[in-house]
Amino acid sequence: MASEFDSLMAGMGIKRMGNEKSKPATKVVRRRAGQASVIVGDAPSSKQKTEGAEARLAKLEAGLDLVKGERAEAEAKVSSLKSKVKKLKASLAEAEAANSGPQVTVAAVLAEWGFESAEERSALLMLDGMLERIISNPDLGADEALRSELVEGVVRVCRDCSGPKGKLVITVSPPACSTCGGHDINREARRFVDAALINGRLRIVIVGRDTHHHRWVRERVGDKRLVLTHVSAGVRRDVAAVQADVDHADAVIIWDPETIDPAHLAIYQSASRVGEVSSSSMGGFLAAAAAIIATD
Ligand SMILES: [Zn+2]
Fold it and tell me: Reduced to 3 DSSP states, what percent helix, strand and coil does the chain have, rounded to the nearest 5?
């Protein structure tokens, strides 16, 4: 900017102050007494003087306009930088506020997802690749996809039981085992069959839960003298069939009532001998079912 301005001014014969070299040399005209002044060169006419002044004025104005334009440009830059700084400060304050909130630990998130004991959480983190997926998650508590994958997909079993294939299986202590629940499965299966035979309650309806739960029960309490009707939650049945099951049953065992169509549930609940078993292990189910069958 300075050099452009300087060259413009130089064009008008204006030099910067303090620059000795560019000072015009002072012309000394010596006079003697009685001698007329020596006139060097032609004196410019007043018309020429006015034109020269106008041209200089026009150039000065152009120079001023240039300086004004450059100043406005610089001011616009400063104002844009100021607004950027303001925005950055605001987002910094926002980030600081977010960080100052209570920090939720991984353990707290996993406990909320149903992995309540330290044993379950460490077993979960030992699953292949799981530790990295959990610790590298920037916002674990908000990861709904991972939550449902773990809540629905993870099966807890003890060392003596085996989990279903294709599921994420974690090893837990027997009371937390989804298969035995800490029960002696063979003993509970015998008690189930005995309760039916001793009381003469051979026609038993088991309704609710998944097909693989029913298969597991049938494999353990299958006895030729018993007539077991298994209705898993996903099976479509009409009301008349449900009513017929109830009418002919000596005992109805409802396994997880919330998995059953409410209209059908009401019919099952109207059975003369009925009981409900909720969210238990399969070993726990056998024990509870034996007690329902034996009810007076
Ligand atoms: Zn077990």
Answer: 55, 10, 35
